[in-house]
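STRUCTURE:
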């Protein structure tokens, strides 16, 4: 996904539209089409993730609640909007849960939050996050 965003024309268009929609529209980019393509790519990746996770976890009502909590921890640890950070943070959360199950099973549910606490105390914007000025 990072290669797509950084090294293709579609990635540059998506970046331009997300950064400043009005400017992208004024130079002739069809912003609605780019939003539809980006949304479609996101839906495809979410469906692929769900299809790959279903055999290991099963399907039941309320399945998304547990995953959303872990996804929040991953996003906070990695830095908001950082794809590489999400990949590294998912490894950290996974290792934290496995170590908690192995060493102290009662801390299984708390392990992702402890990892998030440690990382955010050291780097408040996440592992790959940075402070940036935003135009309002």
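SEQUENCE:
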């Amino acid at each position: 996904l990072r290669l797509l965003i950084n090294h293709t024309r579609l990635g540059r268009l998506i970046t331009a539209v997300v950064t400043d929609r009005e400017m992208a529209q004024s130079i002739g980019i069809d912003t609605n089409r780019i939003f539809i393509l980006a949304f479609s790519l996101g839906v495809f990746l979410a469906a692929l993730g769900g299809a790959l996770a279903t055999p290991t976890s099963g399907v039941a009502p309320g399945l998304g609640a547990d995953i959303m909590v872990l996804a929040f921890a991953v996003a906070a640890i990695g830095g908001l909007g950082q794809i590489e950070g999400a990949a590294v943070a998912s490894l950290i959360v996974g290792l934290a849960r496995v170590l908690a199950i192995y060493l102290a099973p009662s801390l299984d549910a708390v392990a992702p939050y402890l990892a998030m606490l440690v990382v955010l105390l050291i780097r408040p914007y996440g592992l790959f996050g940075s402070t940036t000025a935003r135009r309002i």
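REMARK: Residues 60-136 form one domain.
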